[in-house]
Structures are given as C-alpha cells and as structure tokens.
Write a sequence for this structure.
C-alpha cells in the first residue's frame, strides 16, 4: 500500500496527488513491473517508461502516458 503518490504533467506543470494507492504498474518496452519492487525513487526508470497505471484501493484504475506525466514522489 502506498499512502500517497504525486505525479506531474511536464507540459503544464500541474500535479495530481493520489491517496490510498494499492499499487502502480510501470509499463516499459521490457515489460510491466510493480512500483513496490523498485527502489524508493523510480527516477532511473523514467527514460524507459512508456506509461504507468495507478490502481487505487477501491479498484479504480488511471493510466498516464510518459514522458508527459512523471512520478514526483512516493510516500509509502
């Protein structure tokens, strides 16, 4: 469980904060992995990231394209 996740649109500078995130799936050309299996800061992955899907505790899914959206902060 992720307490909060902050993402940012690099074109507009706008941010979104999600609470009670069950997991985040990171979609790359090499495949998909869960953010829980990565280091605290996923910055190293940004170059390979195609998109990421935020899965909330209530089951709601939201997918964001990279590199337009980046993950700024993960609070576990």
């Amino acid at each position: 469980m992720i307490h909060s996740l902050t993402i940012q649109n690099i074109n507009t500078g706008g941010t979104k904060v999600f609470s009670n995130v069950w997991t985040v799936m990171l979609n790359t050309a090499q495949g998909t992995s869960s953010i829980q299996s990565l280091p605290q800061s996923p910055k190293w992955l940004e170059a390979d990231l195609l998109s990421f899907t935020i899965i909330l505790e209530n089951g709601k899914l939201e997918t964001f394209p990279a590199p337009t959206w980046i993950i700024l902060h993960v609070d576990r």
